[in-house]
Specification:
Elements (H helix, E strand, L loop, with lengths): L17 E7 L6 E8 L23 E7 L5 E5 L7 H17 L6 E5 L7 E7 H14 L2 E7 H9 L7 E7 L2 E8 L2 E9 L6 H14 L11 E6 L9 E2 L2 E7 L17 E6 L1
Parallel strand pairs: 1-14, 3-7, 8-11, 11-13
Antiparallel strand pairs: 1-2, 3-14, 4-6, 5-6, 8-9, 9-10, 12-13
């Protein structure tokens, strides 16, 4: 995946532990939480219980955009084989990489990617059962399911001009952290971590040092690497340096922002808007 927008990589949207359903408030550029529930990723059918407390006028005109917490998807880097030709070969490479990483076939997962034959790219996998549950939810409420997308992709498209060409993009929501590493402008690594609790700065520095070792990054290699932190987590660091690396934080809009700006919060929102 290059540092440009990745419009082709769309699977869906969801949340961390609780699912929030947000819709526009009558003619206002804001969103309103209409329903919430505890959500167990192992039981996607539980999404059927998510429904507005009151009927929604013109529900059939609503388009549902779902953003999935990165811990509910599996995102990984695929290096295409030399001389790769056509989408079929790239899909086979992604499926093989999935099997090598997770020790299982990708048959029960939906794979989507920013397919590229000449450079490493990101592929995301979503459980088919979860996608079917989201489809069923939209159908039951009379909505059109517009997209289902991991937070990684939604955020990437929002901040792509600011992503370091040498360094890390850190995306944090609730207790999920996704670290994306670029080297000389090329995608070199990606890892999603489920954190036991909101991390302190020292813990983030330890995680970053581990990623430096994992990606064989030599400290002090010019040009100096940099860090961009973004997302909705309250624990995103404000320090100017993290683990000796120049760092800055770019907060995303709050839920009371305009619908032209993707509404985000400590936990992600399912957002609907009129067609």
């Amino acid at each position: 995946m290059s540092r440009s927008r990745v419009e082709r990589l769309l699977l869906g949207c969801a949340v961390d532990r609780a699912v929030l359903l947000a819709l526009p408030v009558a003619a206002k550029p804001a969103v309103e939480t209409l329903a919430a529930l505890d959500f167990d990723p192992a039981q996607p059918a539980s999404l059927a219980a998510l429904a507005p407390a009151q009927p929604i006028a013109d529900a059939a005109r609503l388009s549902l955009a779902v953003t999935l917490d990165d811990s509910l998807a599996r995102s990984f880097v695929v290096t295409p084989p030399r001389g790769a030709r056509g989408l079929r070969e790239l899909r086979a490479s992604a499926a093989a990489r999935f099997a090598a990483l997770y020790g299982e076939s990708a048959e029960s997962w939906l794979l989507a990617a920013d397919w590229q034959a000449a450079a490493p790219f990101v592929s995301c996998a979503l459980p088919r059962e979860l996608y079917q549950a989201l489809t069923g939810l939209a159908h039951a409420q009379g909505w059109r399911l517009d997209s289902v997308t991991p937070a990684l992709v939604r955020v990437w498209n929002r901040v792509c001009p600011a992503i370091p060409a040498d360094g890390w993009l850190g995306i944090g929501f609730a207790r999920t952290l996704t670290l994306v590493y670029h080297q000389h402008g090329e995608l070199a690594g990606l890892r999603t971590l489920r954190l036991p609790a909101a991390p302190e700065l020292a813990e983030l520095e330890t995680l970053l040092e581990q990623e430096r070792l994992r990606n064989a990054v030599a400290a002090g290699t010019p040009p100096g690497p940099s860090l961009l932190w973004t997302g909705g987590a309250k624990w995103l660091p404000a320090a100017a340096t993290v683990a000796g690396i120049a760092s800055r934080t770019l907060p995303l809009p709050c839920p009371n922002g305009s619908l032209g700006e993707w509404p985000v919060a400590e936990q992600l929102a399912l957002a609907g808007e009129p067609r």
